[in-house]
Amino acid sequence: MKKFGMIVVISMIISGLVFTNVAFASKVGKRQVAQQKRIGQGLKSGELTCREAGMLEREQRHIEKSKRRVCRDGKFTPKERRRLEQKQNRASRHIYKMKHNDISR
Q1: Which letter, b or e, does each residue of 28-62 get, where b requires 16 or more Cβ atoms within 10 Å of its Cβ?
Q2: What is the pTM of this model?
Q3: Domain annotation covers residue 61
Q4: Per the domain annotation, does 31 fall within a domain?
Q5: How many CA atoms lie within 13 A of 79 on its CB side?
Q6: Overall average pLDDT of the 42-53 stretch
Q7: How far apart are alpha carbons 52 and 58 in whole angstroms?
Q8: Which domain holds residue 86?
Q9: Number of structural domains found in the chain
Q10: What integer is the mean pLDDT of 72-79?
Q11: How far from the centroid of its chain's Cα atoms is residue 43's Cα?
């Protein structure tokens, strides 16, 4: 009976870690979508040139590729999480700076 209880506890811990990783991947995905919308809105309003939007899109594809690479093994280490968040923060700053740099079409 003790063995069964231990197996249940271990499986609960493992499933908790899996759900945490899925939630983080979802958070990254939602942020990617929001940043894509910001780029599209900036292009539509004229705040971004086609060239700037292309550069920002390329950066978004790089982040998405990194996310897929990290998800491949099914777990996120704290270091991988931090690295993806840093890439997203940097991309967000780039979007802001390019939308507010007063370069017109």
Answers
A1: beebbeebeebbeebbeeebbbeebbeebeebbee
A2: 0.72
A3: yes
A4: no
A5: 0
A6: 91
A7: 10
A8: 48-105
A9: 1
A10: 85
A11: 21
